[in-house]
Amino acid sequence: TMKGSVISVLVVLAVVDRLAGGLEHRSYDYTKYHTMDEISAWMNQMERENPDVVSSMIYGQTYENRNITLLKIGFKSTTPKKAVWMDCGIHAREWIAPAFCQHFVKEILGSYKTDSNVNMLFKNLDFYITPVLNMDGYIYSWRDKTTRLWRKSRSPGTGNCTCFGTDLNRNFYANWGMVGISRDCCSDIYNGPTALSEPEAKAVTDFLGAHQNEVLCYLTIHSYGQLILIPYGHPNISAPNYEELMEVGLAAAKAIKAVHGTSYKVGTAPDILYANSGTSRDFARLIRIPYSFTFELRDKGNYGFILPEDQIQPACEESYQGAMSIVNYVHDKNFKSAAITGTLATVF
Amino acid sequence: MKTFCSVWLLLSLVELSPAPPASQEPPLACTGAPDPAPPQPETAEDMASTGDLEPTHYPARRAAQVALHYLNTHHGSPFRVFGLQQVHKASAEDVAAGGRKYKLDFSVTDWGSGSATMNKSSEEFFSNTTDVLNIAGPALRCSADVLFPRTERHSAPEVQLHCEALHQINSTAQEEDAFYQKYISPDSAVSARDIPDSFGNVSEEMQPFWRLARVAASFIMLRESSENTEFNMAKVASVTQQESSGEQLMLEFVVLLHDLPSQVTHKHTHRLWTLMDTEAVCVLTVCVCSAGDRSVEAAGVLVSRQRRQGPADRVAAQMPSRHQTPKLTL
């Protein structure tokens, strides 16, 4: 009959659609490292599957002309909302960092409907999440085994220098060039010919500058070391809210430890790691984003940058609790009454 | 019973070079280009900290890492590699001869094997993985004096180290023996690259080579360390078995060493010889090539260590300067 054949056509179309689009949905493996192409496709998928709460924004171009893209996640609002910024993969070889951003996105998207805490965060905040900031470097680190430990961007050297790349996390306008850098363009901590010479650093700078009044919290994700670093990288400069930042950091480290027993240390970079300058974390604090933290994820040097895939899940689980500890603190400080009377927003 | 406890380690500081020809002579011939200067940061670190040190801060941790490298040169093996777990207490003082001496109280864990058991309970563990090699074993408490000399040219730090219950660690002699027997056969020709691979995988067969590379790298990391460095082995670029002469298992490693403060990854090539030994005292010999010199006598360091079953708690040795003539005892 006519009706029967219409139904069969619809069934065929539905099956085809599932084969084409649904396959990725079932098979995206958060316990594996992914290529840039896979991550980009995954970002599109997150946006497609969660149109109520996810939109993407291109906020700059890499040296090799790739679109630097973030996912904006939260309940849509006609008025500007306060925000939390997270970037991963500013250093190419720190593969666990982009893996963490993907895990973080998966977690909040998977829980905002049922978890009243996450639901409240979605109501009051937007998350701006960049899974891979240094896309050129990340892609280069995937090229072959000899490039796995690449760190910097992929802009060519200037002047007489034949080496490539600038350390993006030394290139920001934050005490640029003062300490913890190298003027040798072949060095892994080369801070660039000038501050903000790198389009990737400029993209973040421009975005944060434009959203200065909205961004409450700046999180930048790295590895390795198992550390939470607070501003500033210069040993003689203290953040005005140093005590508070230490408190919040220590609470996050406690939350991390509760998951799998992993110890994180908390402090300024000059105290617990090394002095540095031109970092994105310092820049964020300097433009008065009050809560600015660097996460250095697992491990402590056994595998270092090349963390085995079977540690992705536990590393992400514990770091998620650490990040959420900070996000919740920041949220509660700004939305006190909402914290007390938070209700599940009707979404659907 | 023969024990795998003698290691002859040859260091040739060659940045990028083809493998030197295998030698049938006593394995102390050095070849290669002059070693590159150790990495120095562009700016001087503030090292004015004297007296009690904050254990979580980097000066204490870097000094503890040096003690750890020392520990691994003495007690590391294809089946045992120690990692720093935590610094409990630390202090530093300037010394009359010109240098700074750190006193440390810290804990280490055995990253090398989940089978190492000790009497102490573990403070840190990864409970969510099934791979035993990701599980740090129970903690071992150590104390160390680490002296960083202040000389115009870099010289190696000097370490005195004592770890509790070191002799209680389960011996890995059986595994070492099996490892040696497996690879000493004439047709064995191990050759591998990139350990771990880009995804952190180390095959079961390569695990002992990975650890051995780390132990061997510890000699270099120890020697190159200063208050401004913090070294870890990033990966093994390659391991190639050389033609063995008689009882010697001969391996050439190319390793990449990562220094945290400078973020630089250094490439080092070194050769490792093993010798089956029935003596009570095992010997490690390290030969460091100085510029252009190809003779054994140019530089040498002898560190003797006692067999693991013996009373091996107090291990004290000095790292002489690079021009000391080696003395061999077998």
Outline the structure in words:
Chain B: Belongs to the protease inhibitor I47 (latexin) family. Chain B: Keywords: Protease inhibitor, Repeat, Signal. Chain A has 348 residues and is an alpha/beta fold. Chain A has eleven helices and eight strands. Chain A has helices at 2-27, 36-49, 96-111, 116-124, 135-141, 199-210, 242-260, 269-272, 280-286, 312-334, 336-341; strands at 54-61, 67-73, 82-88, 125-130, 215-223, 227-230, 265-268, 291-297. An eight-stranded mixed β-sheet of chain A has the order 1-2-4-3-5-8-6-7, sandwiched between helices. Chain A is globular. Mean pLDDT of chain A is 92; it is low at 18-24. Chain B is of the alpha+beta class and 330 residues long. Helices cover 15% and strands 35% of the residues of chain B. Chain B has a seven-stranded mixed β-sheet with strand order 7-8-9-10-1-11-12. In chain B, strand 3 (82-95) and strand 4 form a beta hairpin. In chain B, helix 1 (58-75) crosses helix 3. Chain B is globular, with a radius of gyration of 19 Å. The relative contact order of chain B is 0.21. Mean pLDDT of chain B is 67; it is low at 1-46, 114-135 and 275-330. Chains A and B meet through strand 7, helix 8 and helix 10 of A and strand 3 and strand 8 of B.
In short:
The complex is a heterodimer of chains A (348) and B (330). Helices cover 41% and strands 15% of the residues of chain A.
Elements of chain A, N to C (H/E): HHEEEHHEHHEEHEHHEHH
Protein chain pair with the most extensive contact, residues per chain = A-B, 46 and 46 residues
For the largest sheet of chain A, list the strands in their spatial order: 1-2-4-3-5-8-6-7
Distance between the termini of chain A: 37 Å
The proportion of residues in beta strands of chain B is: 25-35%
Please summarize the sheet with the most strands of chain A. 8 strands, mixed
Q: Give the CA-based shape of chain A.
A: globular
Mean pLDDT of chain B: 67
* Unreliable residue stretches of chain B: 1-46, 114-135, 275-330
What is the radius of gyration of chain B computed over CA atoms, rounded to a whole number of angstroms? 19 Å
Count of individual helical segments of chain B: 3
Radius of gyration of chain A: 21 Å
What is the chains' assembly state?
heterodimer
- Spatial gap, N to C terminus of chain B: 17 Å
Overall geometry of chain B comes to globular
Structural class estimated from helices and strands of chain A: alpha/beta
What is the mean pLDDT of chain A?
92
- Total strands of chain A: the figure is 8
Cofactor (chain A): Zn(2+)
InterPro entries (chain A): CARBOXYPEPT_ZN_1, Peptidase_M14
Protein name (chain A): Carboxypeptidase O
Domain Peptidase M14 (chain A): 32-330
